[in-house]
Design brief:
- There is one protein chain.
- The strands form four sheets. A seven-stranded mixed beta sheet has the order 1-4-5-15-10-11-14, with helices on both faces.
- Helix 5 links the parallel strand 6 and strand 7.
- It has 453 residues and is an alpha/beta fold.
- The protein contains 18 helices and 15 strands.
- The protein folds into two domains: 163 residues, 3-Layer(aba) Sandwich (Rossmann fold), CATH 3.40.50; 237 residues, Rossmann fold, CATH 3.40.50.
- Helices cover 40% and strands 15% of the residues.
- It is globular and about 60 Å long.
- The structure holds pyridoxal-5'-phosphate.
Length: 453
């Protein structure tokens, strides 16, 4: 029997993040200023981001040093364990070897503190006193509240209204760490007031909450904005996941045939996979799979084009797979996967065929999650369960083909705050959503028309 947990020493914590921008087969499409529609200049971002993060956003250096002050805090839970899923393999009767990198060991219960900590750190260095942000399912708000409490910053969280009522304990945790949390759309911002005027019962969306948080940060001199996914610097910070996993697999004498992550904005997927994308660009044959919900099928059914990151069209235009910035997905339980767009880097790699995407329905996703909990013990977040569904499918394919492949997936977080979703699944209340091409065309009609050469 081989090891169940493959652990690294604290001294093996990565010293640098990996920047995939250094290795892209073709240059990325530049973000555009939302007003002029000309390529964005770094100073356009300075009202809401500190210069250190803006530099990381555009850097093409392959390796970027992790400040020692950040590594000190990472050491509270990193390096995270890599598990071999022996019991899941046995239950599936598969010859595949399944490994998972468990990011639920952070204090916030997900991978998100990997970027919340450095973002709070660089803002603190720049003299910022307060960070404003949005949160969908609550994980990002939780992670930023934690980071702000470590660095003595105020934290203002606009929480998508459906989640605010579905997950009261998420709010409690943010408040324990000192954050202020309001349901979005709120009456505190122009964007929020306009949305409430349009629909007083709006369940909110990530796009709306981003508009509120960006407006808040842009209109207060003491405040900056922090985003939990999508942007290049966020994905960069998450690469500690994949860098550690690579070392851990090497200790087990393995290299993965599959690398799988769930994909909302793309940060945990990128964090795990980009160090393997580097190898794929240099000739490895690994299948790298992003898994999104059928109810928010951005990569699999969206369009690759310039769109706004938020509903009120305040953010820069970025080239990405999008369902349209007005798209409001149904209140599916994987709240962290409800974003209308996707990271430009993940989008580009998908467009160039270096990665694949899948979009399972939520009932089959929860079925895989429950199988995982009953074999491996850990209750996965509903978001993570999408990666588990794709992993189980790959393992079953291996069984049918009689081939023993190594599968690596990211267990991006635990589901201890998501038990309402499990209740609904177990009592048969969860529904699968299917869009017609017409439904999707409505959202896509709001995408601005930008000529690109
Ligand atoms: C936020 C979240 C996600 C989705 O976000 P990405 O940026 O795509 O990683 C996935 N899993 C968990 C546990 C999350 O908290």
């Amino acid at each position: 029997m081989t090891q169940t947990k493959i652990l690294l020493d604290e001294k093996d914590l990565p010293q640098q993040w990996y920047n995939v921008l250094a290795d892209l087969p073709s240059p990325p499409a530049p973000p555009l200023n939302p007003q002029t529609r000309q390529p964005l200049r770094p100073e356009d971002l300075s009202p809401i981001f500190p210069m250190a993060l803006i530099e990381q956003e555009v850097s093409t250096k392959r390796w970027i040093d992790i400040p020692e002050e950040v590594r000190e805090i990472y050491r509270l839970w990193r390096p995270t364990p890599l598990f071999r899923a022996h019991r899941l393999e046995a239950a599936l009767g598969t010859p595949a070897r399944i490994y998972y990198k468990y990011e639920g060991t952070s204090p916030a219960g997900s991978h998100k503190p990997n970027t919340a900590i450095p973002q709070a750190y660089y803002n603190k260095q720049a003299g910022v006193k307060r960070l404003a942000t949005e949160t969908g399912a609550g994980q990002w708000g939780t992670a930023l509240a934690l980071a702000c409490s470590f660095y003595g910053l105020e934290c203002m969280v606009y929480m998508v209204k459906v989640s605010y009522s579905q997950k009261p304990y998420r709010r409690s945790l943010m408040e324990v760490w000192g954050a202020t949390v309001v349901p979005s759309p709120s009456d505190r911002t122009n964007a929020g007031r306009q949305m409430l005027a349009r629909d007083p019962h709006s369940p909110g969306s990530l796009g709306m909450a981003i508009s509120e948080a960006v407006e808040d940060a842009a209109t207060r001199p003491d405040s900056n904005y922090a985003l939990g996914s999508v942007l290049n610097h966020v994905l960069l910070h998450q690469t500690v996941i994949g860098l550690e996993a690579k070392k851990q697999l090497a200790l087990a004498g393995e290299y993965p045939d599959y690398v799988i992550g769930c994909c909302g904005g793309g940060s945990n997927f990128a964090g795990l996979s980009f160090p393997f994308v580097y190898d794929k660009i240099h000739g490895k044959k690994t299948r790298i799979i992003a898994v999104e919900p059928a109810a928010c099928p951005t990569l699999t059914r969206g369009r690759y084009t310039y769109d706004f990151g938020d509903t009120a069209a305040l953010t820069p235009l970025v080239k990405m797979y999008t369902l349209g910035h007005d798209f409001v997905p149904p209140g599916i339980h994987a709240g962290g996967l409800r974003y209308h767009g996707d990271s430009p880097l993940v989008s580009q790699l998908y467009h160039e065929g270096l990665i694949e995407a899948k979009a399972p329905h939520q009932r089959s996703v929860f079925e895989a999650a429950v199988l995982f909990a009953r074999t491996e013990g850990i209750l996965p977040a509903p978001e993570t369960a999408h990666a588990i569904r794709a992993t189980v499918d790959a393992a079953i394919e291996c069984r049918e083909a009689g081939s023993s492949k190594a599968i690596l997936f990211c267990l991006s977080g635990h589901g201890h705050f998501d038990l309402t979703a499990y209740d609904d699944y177990l009592s048969g209340k969860l529904e699968d959503f299917d869009y017609t091409a017409e439904d999707l065309a409505k959202g896509l009609a709001t995408v601005p028309k930008i000529e690109t050469g």
